[in-house]
User: Fold this.
Amino acid sequence: MPPPDDRPTFDLQSHSTCSDGTLPPAEVVARAAAAGVQLLALSDHDTVDGVAEALDMARATGGAIRVVAATELSTIDGDHDDLHVLGYGVDHTDAAFLTTLERFRADRNARADRMADALEACGLALDRAPLEARRAAGLPIGRPHLAQAAFDHPDNARRVADEGLADFGRLLEAYLIPGAPAYRRRSTPTVAEAIAAIHGAGGVAVWAHPFWDVDAPEEVVGAIDRFAAQGLDGVEAFYITHTREETLLVADACAQRGLLTTGSADFHGPDHPRFHAFRAFALHGIEPRLGPLAQS
Assistant:
C-alpha cells in the first residue's frame, strides 16, 4: 500500500459480478466511494452490462464519486494471447458496440469450454454446474471461475494440497496462464480490432497493466509504439503490481509520445488474494495524464 500522501483519488479499473468480480456493480461503487475514490471506472471483461447500475449508484452518492463507463477487452497480439485493452468513456448503449462485445464474448465462452476440457484432461475434477449457471444467467466464464470450480471440488483436495496450491489463484497460475497445461488462447480480437471497437463507441483505448504480460522493458516500449500506431490513446502506467522503475519507464514513454497515463488497483472483491483494496497503487510523484477522463 502506498503512503497516504501518494495515494490517488482515482481508480480506473474495477470488476463486478458482471465478469470476474465478487460484488454487484452498485456495491463496487459504494465501497470505492467509502475508500475515498473520487473517479472510478467499472471495467468488466468484454461487457458493459454493469455500467448503468454503477452510474445510478454514483448519482445516488450526490457527487461523492464519478463513474466512467468502461470495459476491459482481452486481445491477442502475436505470441501474447491475453493482452488487455481498457475502453474508457464508451457509449454503453451503442448497438454496434454491444453486438461487437457479444461476438468477443462468444469466443471467450468457447475458449472457456476448451480450458475446462483441458483441466479434466489434466486429471482435475470439475463441477460444471456453477459454470453453466453463470452461462444461463448471461454471465461470462473466465479463468478465475474455472480455477475456483477446480479448487473447490472435493476430489481435488489431496492433489491441491500436494501441489501446494493455497487458493484458487495459485491453481489458476499453475494451470491456466500462458504456457500452463490447461491454458487455451483466444482467437479474437486483435489489439487493433479492440482499439477500433472502443473508438467506434466514442471511447479512448488504454493498454492495461503492460508489465503483466510483457517482462522486458524494451519490449514494453516497443509495444507502446506499435499500439500507438494502431490508435492507442494511453497506457495504465500506475498499477498495483508495477514497481517504481516500471512505472517511471511507462510514464516517461507515454509523455514522450503524448499518450494518456491511467492507473488502478484492479479491484475484484474484498476477499481476492491480491486485488482487494481500492487506491492501492502508487504515483511515485508523477502527475497522471488522464485527459478527457478527468472531465468524465
